[in-house]
Amino acid sequence: MSLDINGKALTTCQVDSAGEAFRLNFESADGQAASLTLPSECLKALLMTLPRLTAQALRAKYRDETLKVVYPVGDWSLHLASDGVHRILTLGTPDGFEVSFALQDDDAAGLAASFGEPQRDTAALLPKMN
Predict the structure, then answer these.
(1) The pLDDT of residue 129
(2) Measuring CA to CA, which residue among 42, 71, 64, 68 is closest to residue 54?
(3) Weakly modelled stretches of the chain, pLDDT under 70
(4) What angle do CA 78, 79, 85 make, to 5 degrees?
(5) pLDDT tens, position by position, 73-110
């Protein structure tokens, strides 16, 4: 039997001093303090899952499959990775959320070229498929 805790609000987050685990502190639906501690290895899976869950919740709530979660860009940086091959593109929001992507030369060149193209109907643009 699994333990099911209904949360009301996320309150704080913590990483242990060794970087081995993290804790999500929240208020449970009954008003009690609760927490979930996981090993740091779970962070990547969590980061990959949360955007998908957010999109699913948004689309289910508004019954509109075209809705997307969109964040304003506050700042960005582009630098060469330590491997000397990839470029690291980091996008950040004004409130401090950041995400980084490793780009190969052809990806970076394609992205740069797309910014030089005249604006067109974005509905006609298709995502790059690998």
Answers:
(1) 47
(2) 68
(3) 119-130
(4) 120
(5) 999 999 999 999 999 999 999 999 999 999 998 998 89
Tokens at 90, concatenated = 């980091």
Average pLDDT value over all residues in the chain: 89
Domain boundaries, the chain: 7-62, 75-118
Taking Cα atoms as reference points, which of 93, 113, 95 lies closest to residue 103? 113
Three-state secondary structure readout of the chain: CCCCCCEEEEEEEEECCCCCEEEEEEEECCCCEEEEEEECCHHHHHHHHHHHHHHHHHHHHHCCCCCCCCCCCCEEEEEECCCCCCEEEEEECCCCCEEEEEECHHHHHHHHHHHHCCCCCHHHCCCCCC
